[in-house]
Specification:
Strand content: 5-15%
Order of helices and strands: HEHEHEHEHHHHEHEHEHEH
Number of strands: 8
Strand order of the largest sheet: 2-1-3-4
Number of helices: 12
Shape: globular
Radius of gyration: 23 Å
Length: 333
């Protein structure tokens, strides 16, 4: 679509002449306008952003994703072609802090509407690079205490940027949806009513999903779950759980021998039954830990992309599958 408008000004006779003589050149100009899909063109950084754009935009938007299905989004490198795609779009929808190359490309682009999902809800510092979830330890940090076995200097080294995996908390994802809806209404006012209606419908579905997680995880035998990388901090905090990641925030990082031993001991202490792995990264480390500790394995999907291995066709279905996996692993009563 690219909401650039061609205006013909002047007297009626001049307008008539322009219309008669300039139709072909005007059409030619339109054909090279950015997007040119006759819809509002949105380039999304990866699946959770594309899902929002599709659900809220409906028939009025054309959505493309910079991250291909099955590609690990953290590893994305923007190509020259993708930079050109950004320039030709009406809007860019991304989550600053997750994909540095996307952040850079969007900042450098001339796309008129830039929607940063990270500004539409509050991000938190959850988990650390060592795989621990320290979200419940703020009081100790404020009082100047250190976790047993870690010096203040080590804690400082473990500081990291805000956790970007915010879409895994349906309530925060709903907040982002509302912000995206408002941004699309402003950028494409001709279809604002439909965007408003679609946003309300999506928020309703996400609210129902949140309620299902609240109910399903309310009473469990254990509150601790093991994951491959620290993507589930927001989900854990929302539903009163504790995430322990084999790796840290980077899914490609390898755990130390000390970390593996620590997890084995914790599994016994906290009644952990299952080590979760993901669909877009290798399951080797998770399965090795599970074998050595006598634990089961299952999939907990960070919903960073939908493939034929996904347990569902969209965000809602995969999150419902995640809920069932958590209920089983945690011993939901």
């Amino acid at each position: 679509m690219n909401v650039r408008r061609h205006h013909i000004s002047g007297l009626a006779t001049a307008a008539a002449t322009a219309l008669a003589l300039g139709t072909l050149s005007a059409c030619s100009s339109d054909s090279t306008a950015a997007g040119n899909t006759e819809k509002f063109d949105v380039v999304a950084s990866f699946y959770p952003m594309a899902y929002l754009a599709e659900q809220i935009g409906g028939e009025h938007v054309s959505v493309s994703s910079l991250t291909k299905p099955g590609q690990e989004p953290h590893d994305l490198e923007i190509s020259t072609q993708q930079r050109a795609q950004l320039e030709e779009s009406d809007a860019a929808l991304y989550l600053k802090g997750l994909q540095p190359t996307v952040d850079e490309a969007v900042a450098q682009s001339g796309v008129k509407t830039k929607i940063d999902a990270a500004t539409l809800t509050k991000l938190e510092e959850l988990g650390t690079e060592d795989g621990h979830d320290h979200g419940g330890e703020e009081e100790h940090a404020e009082e100047g205490h250190s976790e047993e076995g870690h010096t203040e200097e080590e804690h400082s080294e473990q500081e990291h940027a805000l956790d970007p995996h915010v879409w895994l908390d349906p309530s925060k994802y709903a907040e982002i949806a509302e912000g995206v809806g408002k941004a699309l209404q402003k950028a494409d006012p001709d279809h604002a009513a439909d965007y408003r209606k679609n946003t309300a419908g999506l928020v309703k579905k996400l609210t129902a999903l949140d309620a299902a997680f609240q109910e399903g995880l309310k009473n469990t035998k254990t509150k601790v779950f093991f994951t491959h990388h620290a993507a589930f901090g927001y989900l854990a905090h929302r539903y009163g759980l504790t995430q322990e990641a084999i790796a840290g925030l980077d899914p490609e990082s390898e755990p130390s021998a000390a970390r593996v031993k620590e997890l084995q001991q914790e599994a016994k202490a906290d009644g952990v039954t299952t080590v979760f792995y993901e669909t877009l990264v290798s399951d080797k480390t998770a399965k090795t830990l599970a074998r050595d500790a006598g634990l089961k394995t299952d999939v907990l999907d960070p919903v960073e992309g939908i493939t034929d291995k996904s347990r569902g066709d969209d965000y809602i279905q995969v999150m419902e599958a995640n809920l069932e996996a958590l209920k089983k692993a945690l011993g939901s009563k």
